[in-house]
Amino acid sequence: MRTLIAAAVSSFVLVGFAPLASAQDVKANAEAGATKAAMCIGCHSIPGYQASFPQVHKVPMIAGQNAAYLQAALAAYKTGDRKHPTMKAIAVSLSDQDMADLAAYYQALPAAKPALEAKPSQQPSPEVAALIQKGNCIACHGENFSKPTDPSFPKIGGQHADYLFVALKGYQTQRNQVVGRANPVMNGMVANFTPEELKRMAQYIGSVDGELKVVPQSRFK
Description:
mainly alpha, Cytochrome Bc1 Complex, Chain D, domain 2, two-stranded antiparallel sheet, 11 helices, globular
């Protein structure tokens, strides 16, 4: 099993995040990212803001997220590996430098970082624990779901549960022109889960303490 996971992770890095290869020499500038974030704050800097596509859910918290993951996610929206009309329209307008700067800016937020325990204080039910083990979530996202084993993997602890559910379903969606996420690791991991199982995992992971935050900008405070 470990051999299969290692092979999948290698495929993930080589295939899933291929767009980063062209940006490897870009030096990120968080201060520059702050000046480019106007297109982001209308959704990601408003507490409780909800999107309606592909269903109603809170937009993800990205302040405090790993920069490598954010940069890769933007690249995936630009190439179409992640399908989302709004994010596609934004991503195609961004250069590799823009993506790197924005990712660095959001990783630096908030100024005060929470101190998390190595494991969540709130343990899952035996049923949910079995689902998390089946999905091998800890192997990539860490025991507290906020210490990924690779910086290109996202922190998911405390993320909005309804967003996590939508994201997980996206990895199950194939051959759809407007919805879905192409990622060799996640596509395989979620393939054998029912929607109810995905929702239960999302609800638990979203309930634990995490490092992700919504940081309002001055115009929205």
